[in-house]
Structures are given as structure tokens and as C-alpha cells.
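Our consortium's second objective concerns turning raw sequence data into structural hypotheses that experimental partners can test. To show how far this objective has progressed, the report includes one record in full. It was chosen at random from the queue rather than selected for favorable results. The single chain below, 122 residues long, was entered without modification.
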Amino acid sequence: MVQPEILALVQGGYYLASGLWPLVHLRSFLAVTGPKTDLWLVRTVAVLVVVIGLTLLQAGRSPSAPALELAMLPGAGAALGLTLIEVYHVAKRVISPIYLADALVELAIVAAWLTPMVSSAR
């Protein structure tokens, strides 16, 4: 079992990096993930992912029980939401299959959050 503070730091760092990427260098992001028509939406999602990442990093840096319990829902929820969106849109051939790589990472994050979530519910 991964300690919740470590999980929050790892997921937070991953989200910070993946959210900043299209904001810092949109051209390379599009080269890897495929062309997009709504670039405003790419930027909007990127900003939201950065904010979630920063929140998780803050929770991981101050590993008090309340902070980590508050991090569980956005941590697991964002990862599950991104997984479902990516798998659905790859299946519909709307986005590139490269997004399945991120979906696997997100699914691992969801699985990692399940143990502390179940433990805190008891």
C-alpha cells in the first residue's frame, strides 16, 4: 500500500507536469497527442489539472489526516474522471490512442487511492 502523502505528492507532480505541458509548449503537446480544434478547451483542462496537482502537492507536503482525507476525493475523482473520458473518446475515435497510456496511469492512481479511502471510511 502506498502511503497517502506519497500518493498525493506523486499524483500532484504528475498532474502539475502534464497540466503545464500544453501551457508551456502547446506545439509539442499537439505533436504527441494529436491535433485539436478547440485549443481554448486544451488550455482550460490544463489549468484545472495544474490546480488539482498543486492541491495534491500541498496535501502531501503537510500530511495531516484532515488534509490527506480532503485530498482523496479530488485525487481519486479526477483520476477516475480522466480515465473514463479518455477511454470513451479513444473508443469513439475522437482522440488519439496515446491517451490510453495516460488512462492506465490514471487507473493505477485510482487503485492506489482505494485503500486509504476504504481505511478512512471505517
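The partners drew two points from this record. The mean pLDDT is 94. The chain has one domain: 4-121. Both points have been shared with the crystallography group to help prioritize constructs.
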